């Protein structure tokens, strides 16, 4: 199945099975870039967010929830008002609008365009005869900057914006954090919540939405702490798949490098940044993304966003879109706190006992969200190779439904027993399913990614046991009802393997 064919199949699967619907609202024809999570999609996204939350908390970061809307001055201070924009070009014939970078990337994938100014991009469009992908018409002779922020109004006259990132809103209570952490740096804060971007003609389904959920961790620390970072030694021997921008230019492959080597060879600028990349890696493994599909790609200096001094993206290899950015790890230095200090008139600094001076902390940021990883999990684990029995092979811990319980037939007290078992398993997401043949119920649950199916049959009446079937191997074992909950708990948490259960 080709890439495009797979993408179509995957999106149809998401719609039909109840993972993701849209563009929404469908009965009104849909608005590009807005999607609805159906019941299974919402369960999966919640599992992804719980994994993110768990990893951040285990690594010492604290969660906050800030307002989504903030007045214009905040975005002036953050730089988003002037610099958060994409180059846009129109078609002279059909008036179609295009994000210039995507247009060129799709027409001429061999060109490297990261960070090029608009006049050079325009020349490339002319030189390579790039035309409107829809009507083949001539593209305009001008590229304009399209600001990505969505404006709104508060009260009758206060201009405000929906946040385009959670990060800026996380920085604003800095003085409160300073009190909460008793003026001790470093400290870490994260936020999981909605962000909005007025993307130009978004395609690529949930990878480029106009309303999406970000999950962004921010590590506040003094500049000098970056070089002697207290937690570095505990992770120094961890190896990460790194692809520095120099190696990209020289067409060298991604290399597994230990953090200690990466810092010593100046591939990573400092210990704290290395620790932050490692935490990011843990995040992606924790969300169930297989290690072999992950790489860290460094931005070239031309590609860097206005607030970042250094940036490495987590890219994940998708069946539908190839290597795709799912996260950016940014060294934002003291850019944000200094800007907000200037615009608010408040001193955003803390007294450092070591240097005996007041310092503005730097910020290292892990910027990602839950939509792209949710899409990635569906992309990676959906397996339509057997047309008769398509399977969603999600890691058990992420499966929206953990267990489905069936009565073999709808008579002889089997439904009542099955319902009771299902009730007893409510600590997992467990459903009771009695519709259709057992075969149909298995296939329906395989499509949904249900980890285990439990069937109550006539032997249950006598032996007080049930059949447990594993989604991936289709193998079955008999388990005593009295041991069912504990066995399933261990299977779901990966403490035991299905193949190790007694047949
Ligand atoms: N605070 C920095 C920041 O926002 P970014 O690279 O622009 O950095 C971070 O965005 C992450 O947010 C991305 O890696 C992606 O996971 C998610 N994201 C950004 N734009 C998105 C969109 N239009 N749709 C879905 N997710 C998006």
Describe the structure concisely for a colleague.
The protein is α+β, with helices and mostly antiparallel strands and 503 residues long. It contains 17 helices and 26 strands.
Care to describe what's here?
The protein is α+β, with helices and mostly antiparallel strands and 503 residues long. It has three domains: 3-84 and 148-379, Bira Bifunctional Protein, Domain 2 (BirA Bifunctional Protein, domain 2, 2-Layer Sandwich), CATH 3.30.930; 86-144; 390-502, Rossmann fold. 33% of the residues lie in helices and 26% in strands. The protein has 17 helices and 26 strands. A nine-stranded mixed sheet has the order 3-10-11-19-16-15-14-12-13, sandwiched between helices. It has a five-stranded mixed sheet with strand order 23-22-24-25-26, with helices on both faces. A three-stranded antiparallel sheet has the order 4-9-8. Helix 2 packs antiparallel against helix 11 (271-286) and helix 3 (72-78) packs across helix 12. It is globular. Glycyl-adenosine-5'-phosphate binds next to strand 11, strand 16, strand 19 and helix 13.
Question: What are the salient characteristics of this protein?
Answer:
Rossmann fold, 503 residues, nine-stranded mixed sheet, alpha+beta, five-stranded mixed sheet, BirA Bifunctional Protein, domain 2, binds glycyl-adenosine-5'-phosphate
């Amino acid at each position: 199945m080709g890439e495009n064919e797979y993408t179509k199949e995957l999106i149809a699967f998401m719609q039909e099975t109840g993972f993701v619907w849209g563009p929404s609202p469908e009965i009104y024809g849909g608005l590009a870039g807005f999607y609805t999570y159906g019941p299974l999609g919402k369960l999966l996204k919640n599992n992804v967010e719980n994994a993110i939350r768990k990893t951040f908390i285990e690594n010492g970061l604290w969660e906050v929830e800030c307002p989504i809307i903030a007045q214009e001055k905040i975005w002036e201070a953050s730089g988003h008002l002037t610099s958060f924009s994409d180059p846009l070009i129109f078609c002279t014939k059909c008036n179609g609008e295009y994000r210039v970078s995507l247009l060129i990337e799709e027409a001429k994938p061999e060109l490297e365009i990261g960070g090029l100014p608009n006049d050079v991009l325009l020349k490339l469009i002319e030189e390579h005869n790039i035309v409107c992908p829809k009507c083949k018409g001539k593209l305009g002779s001008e590229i304009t900057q399209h600001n990505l922020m969505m404006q709104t109004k508060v009260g009758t006259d206060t201009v405000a914006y929906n946040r385009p990132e959670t990060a800026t809103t996380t920085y604003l209570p800095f003085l409160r954090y300073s009190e909460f952490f008793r003026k001790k740096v470093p400290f870490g804060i994260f936020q999981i919540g909605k962000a909005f971007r007025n993307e130009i003609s978004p395609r690529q389904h949930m990878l480029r939405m106009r309303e999406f959920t970000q999950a962004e961790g921010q590590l506040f620390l003094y500049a000098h702490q970056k070089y002697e970072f207290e937690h570095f030694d505990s992770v120094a021997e961890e190896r990460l798949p790194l692809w520095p921008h120099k190696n990209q230019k020289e067409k060298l492959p991604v290399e597994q490098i230990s953090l200690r080597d990466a810092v010593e060879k100046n591939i990573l600028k400092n210990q704290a940044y290395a620790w932050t990349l490692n935490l990011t890696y843990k995040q992606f493994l924790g969300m169930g993304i297989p290690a072999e599909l992950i790489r860290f790609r460094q931005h070239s200096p031309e590609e860097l966003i206005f607030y970042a001094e250094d940036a490495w993206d987590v890219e994940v290899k998708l069946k539908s879109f190839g290597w795709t950015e799912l996260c950016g790890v940014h060294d934002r230095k003291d850019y944000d706190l200094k800007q907000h200090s200037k615009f608010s008139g408040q001193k955003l600094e803390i007294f450092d006992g070591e240097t005996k001076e007041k310092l503005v902390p730097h910020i290292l940021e892990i910027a990602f969200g839950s939509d792209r990883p949710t899409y990635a999990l569906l992309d990676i684990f959906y397996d339509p190779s057997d047309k008769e029995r398509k399977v969603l092979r999600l890691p058990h811990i992420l499966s929206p439904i953990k267990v489905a319980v069936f009565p073999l037939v709808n008579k002889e007290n089997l439904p009542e027993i099955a319902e009771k078992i299902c009730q007893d398993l409510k600590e997992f997401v467990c459903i009771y399913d009695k519709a259709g043949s057992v075969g149909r119920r298995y296939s329906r649950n395989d499509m949904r990614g249900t980890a285990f199916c439990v069937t109550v049959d006539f032997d249950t009446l006598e032996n007080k046991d049930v059949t447990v079937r594993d989604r991936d191997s289709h193998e079955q074992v008999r388990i005593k009802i009295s041991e069912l909950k504990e066995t399933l708990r261990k299977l779901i948490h990966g403490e035991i393997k299905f193949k190790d259960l007694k047949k």
